[in-house]
DNA sequence: TTGTAAGCGTTATCAG
DNA sequence: CTGATAACGCTTACAA
């Protein structure tokens, strides 16, 4: 790595002259500027970012802490984050909490010692359950945090959330009112998360508002979830619609229904949660709730970048990104 | 952010005393050590990592540059990378090239100015096609690079590759020899990538070795790929097996076949490329080639960490991770 | 046992 | 127009 000092020696000028010349300062004469920049290019000089960071006490790096990258929703959000940060000359360092509280804490403490200017987080499942949130309290005093999707009400920071309750409420109501469905099954495998609870409650409200019965299956992947769904459907022939509240069980439900030789959407309508590939891997194409992960990521990082740019402390806001019901082929035509 | 200097002032000792005390140096007396650590804890002192990095000219950060995170294969690899790096006290900053040469170059130059100790890359599609690889040549002189999956033969560095040719060759041969298939269709949507070419060639070799005819569909997502597959199958009723060489078209093929009321695997066997969710979103469960993304990520980062740890320059190696044929329900029982 | 000072690579202030 | 110097926060010879 070639440094200012080496350039200075080779050119027989001082370090500060080189520095100024390279930043095109008006203090430096055109002739020297040219000499300097030419040698710098030749030797492929790049200012050492670590040194700049130390000097400016700004890293231009954002710490992103997510539970997983193999969940397509988070992958999508991270993609949105990357795009916006890139446009604002920020890099990101990603830590994966793996839904573990301890891993999340470690990541935070590691990054909080000057490595990043701010954080974007979706809190780990274990953190939500145990509700051990000291690390957020500590950090939020020093560096701005933006939380998305899985947020903590008791932490004072900017938040970007999905209107989980209303989204599922409306999807359920759609099935009842527009498709005249009366026996709607909800399939859930994220019951313990706050977002999961909101979604279930949205479903319940819509169903109860129409004086219908709730039908809920809670899955977890250990068992054989497709069998469970199939058995349930066989035992409950009255089911005429399914709502799945995560990105995978909707497709599983669709496959189960097909296996029972029921017609979709004639006999049973299905609405799942969408992700980038869901329409490619389902047939007929799954009707989905699109959570707009990309936009969520963009908004979260824009808020963070803006916060870092403005000196005055503005009050914390919670922005809501409205999910969109995308009617494809597993619901009847509108 | 509390610094050594502040601690020193508060304790009426010198900065170096504080520094040594905190690193439990034998030079410092127990009494002062105690005073120092207590105040440090109280004030939540964390050494500024940027300063440490400048001092040691080591960042303990690895730059990871991948084409996409929404491709589950890369998400899996990144997960493997994160795990291994975490175990070795490294962080990672991720850049997404989005398959763009220019974005890839920018990422490299940005990170190469001291921000990271080394790189892990899968090269962008555009880079492979245009074969503009100057940025790799430049960087590889200063920082170690490990390439995975999409590698560049002309760059001298460590590599972790998948045996694409043999994997598909063997899968095809399996269909021919064990399942007695004679009309095998290959579906591809990554023809232009080197890995895609290898896979196609593996297929061709197996087919031709048995004096069978090759049948290939090239897809791209703009058109309506499922229709294309369906039409092809309808026009070619003799097809009795399908190999798909990416993570998504295998499931598409399965759905198309079912739509034509053919039985899987009785009438048609299908083998796709697997990813974490493929068995959950297919029914019957797709038989897949498992590329072992997680292991690839682990190995790539282990190699990089080892390289950084050892002073002597060892020769560059190319390691091969053997993919595994996982026979599920879309092939006949072995 | 503790303190002083130099240095990592930059930038910025101030003199020359 | 150019150069010396200090500072960012830390580590580490070397002195005391």
Automatic annotation (TrEMBL), chains A, B:
Keyword Transcription regulation tagged: yes
Pfam families in the record: LacI, Peripla_BP_1
Keywords from UniProt, A to Z, are: DNA-binding, Transcription, Transcription regulation
Q: Which InterPro entries match?
A: HTH_LacI, Lambda_DNA-bd_dom_sf, Peripla_BP/Lac1_sug-bd_dom, Peripla_BP_I
HTH lacI-type domain segment(s): 2-56
Q: Which SUPFAM superfamilies does the UniProt entry name for this protein? A: lambda repressor-like DNA-binding domains (SSF47413), Periplasmic binding protein-like I (SSF53822)
Superkingdom assignment: Bacteria
What are the recorded GO MF terms, alphabetically?
DNA-binding transcription factor activity; transcription cis-regulatory region binding
Q: Does the keyword RNA-binding apply?
A: no
* Listed SMART domains: HTH_LACI
* Name this protein carries in UniProt: LacI family transcriptional regulator
Species lineage: Bacteria, Pseudomonadati, Bacteroidota, Flavobacteriia, Flavobacteriales
